[in-house]
Amino acid sequence: MSYADVYQSWKNDPEAYWMAQADAIDWVTPPSKALFAENAPLYEWFKDAQVNTCWNAVDRHVEAGRGDRTAIIYDSPVTETVRHISYGELKEQVASLAGALTAKGVTTGDRVIIYMPMVPEALVAMLACARIGAIHSVVFGGFASNELAVRIDDATPKAIIAGSCGIEPGRIVEYKPLLDGAIELAHHKPEFTVIFQRDQAVAPLKAGFDFDWAALQKDAAPVDCVPVSGDHPAYILYTSGTTGAPKGVVRPTAGHLVALNWTMKNIYDVDPGDVFWAASDVGWVVGHSYICYAPLVAGNTTVVFEGKPVGTPDAGTFWRVIQDHNVKSFFTAPTAFRAVKRVDPDGEFIKKYDLSGLNTIYLAGERADPDTIEWMQDKLGKPVLDHWWQTETGYTIAGNPWGIEKMPVKIGSPTVAMPGYDVQILDEGGNEMPAGELGAIAIKLPLPPGTLPTLWNAEERFLKSYLNTFPGYYETGDAGMIDEDGYLYIMARTDDVINVAGHRLSTGGMEEVLAGHPDVAECAVIGVADALKGQLPMGFLCLSNGVNRPHEEIVAEVIQRVRDQIGPVAAFKLALVVDRLPKTRSGKILRATMAAIADGRDYKMPATIDDPAILDELTEALTAVGYPQG
Ligand code: COA
Ligand code: AMP
After folding, report:
1. CATH number for 579
2. Which one of 312, 350, 468, 528 is least enclosed by Cβ atoms within 10 Å?
3. Do residues 230 and 494 make contact, with C-beta atoms less than 8 angstroms apart?
4. How many Å lie between the centroid of ligand 1 and the Cα of residue 237?
5. What is the pLDDT of residues 454-494, one digit of tens each?
């Protein structure tokens, strides 16, 4: 069948389409129907089924006699380790950790925060939670204590599972002091922690509160999978929104299994047993879906890579991993390839490795710039497929359905809407716009299985953030257009979210940190274009009257504040002191105009601007520090 046929068959009868896909999942009790629309515009899928995620990701492969197949390849250039874990071994590890958690009172519906580096035990922890119906919430290791504390207070976990440290090039990041600091800051206190000790930094444990992973696992009786209902939250994953308070995206169990399993063949074109590698981090949605769950549910081998695209040890790392492990489909963010291209523009490292087993490369997480795609196509001679999705959806909204039909690649477009997604471009009044016109990208409700049914403990915020602006549609927060051939183009965010090295960050959150500095009266943070990371945050500070300390000192302090309170991942290193900020007459800061000036893009003078002269002052201040660049 062609893509058009498949898409049309979904459109003709979405429920029948998804019920057919659900056959690939092992149910304890199969769903009686696909869609539950009683609470529209809140929708749920496969709600009355009973199922277990871990069974589908691990046990069923062992039961089917494939226990010897490799489930996880751990490749860690930063510790010079390569380890293969079979499905059978994975089952043993997961069942015993799940047993340990159960023995300590963790049960279905309890939340467990996971704060781990890129080691296979991060997946073991996720799957152990899934095995007993506990709801995990993984927090990225590059976040500081304060961000972890915010998530502890929102998710109110019974337990926290953490690694003793992460390894960044040139430094060991000790997680335990960050974790202790977060628990200290949080109002909610977990009952206990489980610490996975690494030789690089063994953490001191508080007796009766911190438990050693290895000891717990050794003494635990393994437990079986606990069935949960189809709408049970598999996990909560926090993501950035407009304000500093992150949004807890809820992932529903049954839809997650059905949809992710569907993607492995239809989008990533891999079959059971093939090696699939997503070079991301378990702290992000790409890590949840494509390092952990989807490849395992589909019976693939997944690669857990602990390293960077460059410097661990060199710009050939990706190619070595692809060669050594016979990776068939490879997925990462464009920024990673920009990093490689910068160090190895002629692709000398590529020539050193045998990449004949690699079929296709997938990009997502940020806009894929044409230069990078063309460089990759040229140097690798393989298809490079952009695809667009979000934490909220958990998998592709628009992509090139390589396992269905290899559609022509148009550089600059992530290709076409996947079955399940009726993507529309809307004007401000919510009217559907014709091909070729720019507008807000929205998806007609209901969203397909596996996408967020709500935000954790925040239904009002869910409605306000996604459903209220355009009744009957989900608002993606992205703007763009669809061309005559149905190809989608993603142009910009419509909110204050920025994308730094493929990491989604809130400028509002950074502004809250800057505003907390005693000398700062007012501030704004915008995303400025960056050749490596796509965007970088830049802060503008207006100082309180009477402050006459050197500006460099204040700038250094706010940079440190963001690092301490949000974390190094914010990559906040640019800030300047200005007299005034451009605003509308009603006092709204004109951040989009500021970003256009910093990037040297054309902009329309906002009709509501209070004092246009401030834009000249801003241009001057930016020119003085070298913006716009190049
Ligand atoms: N734990 C602790 N610190 C971390 C961290 C982690 N898990 N991940 C990143 N950091 C730190 C980095 O060490 C860096 O600190 P520094 O300011 O002291 O140098 C800072 O956070 C910024 O990190 P990052 O933005 O990743 O920049 P980088 O210079 O270390 O690496 C890239 C740049 C492009 C190589 C890197 O971002 C990358 O590999 N990106 C791949 C894309 C990706 O994984 N995207 C996820 C969505 S698909
Ligand atoms: P995240 O939730 O971290 O996956 O970030 C999702 C956001 O990243 C989207 O809303 C887009 O703004 C951006 N994004 C993700 N993939 C792409 C892509 N292929 N092209 C352009 N932007 C993308």
Report:
1. 3.30.300.30
2. 468
3. no
4. 19
5. 999 999 999 999 999 999 999 999 999 999 999 999 999 99
